[in-house]
Amino acid sequence: MTEKCKTATLQLDGKSIELPILSPTAGPDVLDVRKLYAQAGVFTYDPGYTSTASCDSTITFIDGDKGELLHRGYPIDQLAGKSHYLEVCYLLLYGELPTAVELEDFETRVTRHTMLHEQMQYFFRGFRRDAHPMAIMVGVVGAMSAFYHDSTDINDPWQREVASIRLIAKMPTIAAWAFKYHTGQPFVYPRNDLDFASNFLRMCFAVPAEEYEVNPILSRAMDRIFTLHADHEQNASTSTVRLASSSGANPFACIAAGIACLWGPAHGGANQACLEMLKEIGTPDRIPEFIARAKDKNDPFRLMGFGHRVYKNFDPRATVMKQSADEVLDLLGIEDNPILQVAKELEKQALEDPYFADKKLFPNVDFYSGIILEAMGFPTSMFTPIFALSRTVGWVSQWKEQLADPAHKIGRPRQLYLGETTRDYVDIENR
Ligand code: SDX
Q: Where are the catalytic residues (predicted)?
């Protein structure tokens, strides 16, 4: 006897339409409107998808009211404290924490895919030296489909797996080389005897003129930043990847689309915008002026690194990032970093202001990350590329999950049309 499915009844034009209610393992129930147009001849209307579930997924869950973020059921603060990025990548990709043997095999597979096809160097050289690293990443990742033909067939599970590993493994090299190209320094090749985060730091900061010693404090902080950005349900860039994939586009094209979407200052570009804002504020005495601007409806200015579509209590990643900022700056001996002081005072004053409390606006993942990244030596232009390389595993995991669903189909939203109804063409002499 199957359990009777809960339904909601819609009364429309004298008709009653029963809409199934789908129950999750966590989170709100979902009203299944897949047959609504066929049964009632009406669309739902939800620009910005504030009330819309675009898919089902088992990868990440966010409880915005509790400030909870789970990856395959494991809380982000536990993963950030006890795990490391490549283990979290395994968890997101395959659904379970790996055994020691599984982890070693996975890390070896990723390590052996960190080099880029040598010809790709010339792709970088086509850019101006002052090109934003995100522009380079969008271009180079899209171009990977021209270099890695043997992992573009999405219907071949082996090719899907190879493409996944290649993307996770090569993104740090691409991001580091975009940075090196920007600075005019020579590219540094990955090394197989370094862990993921140390490899990235070395590719960014090593120069041929001297040996580069990885600072374990920075390496641990870098790895934690990667973990905190790994995945986040159906955010704008992940939804972009899913929509691109729904047409059957190759994995490199889909991830390039995700990178492009992440670049926006309302999304992944907020970490760069936030540090630039903190620097513009400069000193704690100017904070009230900026808070007033953020509250002014006639001023498009918003506090960068503040607010979130889902979190309405606090962003658990921001909590971990704030702790990490304190630790890293302290361990680096950066006493009284003025920007960190401005950030902490801004957070304090904003959270005491009814405007932000009433609208449930809190620091998000981007509020403190830039402070750590700048202390590590990165320019603001590298903040979003680091977010993109971290999020690649989330995009790839969600991409694989969608392709594995036999019921998935091309995404094709409809619209509320408010334009002209049918009218006849008017010859130019009669206009
Ligand atoms: C990320 O989706 C994800 O999961 C994204 C992400 C991930 O890991 O993938 O978490 C990463 O993108 C984090 C967010 C980074 N962006 C920023 O920090 C930019 C600043 N934040 C805002 O632009 C905004 O808060 C958003 C875009 C993050 C969320 O916007 P929403 O959910 O669409 O909310 P909204 O724009 O409708 O704002 C609700 C109200 C509005 O006022 P009213 O129209 O109701 O009067 O709050 C106000 C907004 O004006 N508001 C802000 C504000 N954010 C929202 N006012 C001042 N400063 C802000 N930062």
A: 308, 366
Name the active-site residue from 308, 326, 424, 427.
Answer: 308
**Domain extent for 29:** 7-53
Active site residue 223: no
pLDDT digits (tens, 9 = 90+) for 281-305: 999 999 999 999 999 999 999 999 9
Does 366 qualify as catalytic in the annotation?
Answer: yes
CATH code of residue 39: 2.20.28.60
Q: How far is the CA of 65 from the centre of ligand 1 (A)?
A: 15
Domain total of the chain: 1
**pLDDT below 50 — which residues of the chain?**
1-2
- Please tell me the distance between residue 80's alpha carbon and the centre of ligand 1 in angstroms: 24
Q: What is the pTM of this model?
A: 0.95
3-state DSSP of the chain? CCCCCCEEEEEECCEEEEEEEECCCCCCCEECCCCHHHHHCCCCCCCCCCCCCCCCCCCEEEECCCCEEEECCEEHHHHHHHCCHHHHHHHHHHCCCCCHHHHHHHHHHHHCCCCCCHHHHHHHCCCCCCCCHHHHHHHHHHHHHHCCHHHCCCCCHHHHHHHHHHHHHHHHHHHHHHHHHHHCCCCCCCCCCCCHHHHHHHHHHCCCCCCCCCCHHHHHHHHHHHHHCCCCCCCHHHHHHHHHHHCCCCHHHHHHHHHHHHCCCCCCCHHHHHHHHHHHHCCHHHHHHHHHHHHCCCCCCCCCCECCCCCCCCCHHHHHHHHHHHHHHHHCCCCCCHHHHHHHHHHHHHHHCHHHHHCCCCECCHHHHHHHHHHCCCCHHHHHHHHHHHHHHHHHHHHHHHHCCCCCCCCCCCCCCCCCCCCCCCCHHHC
Task: Give the binding-site residues of ligand 1, using a 6 Å CB cut-off.
Answer: 232, 235, 266-268, 270, 294, 302-309, 359, 361, 364-366
Residue range 224-241, pLDDT digits in tens:
999 999 999 999 999 999
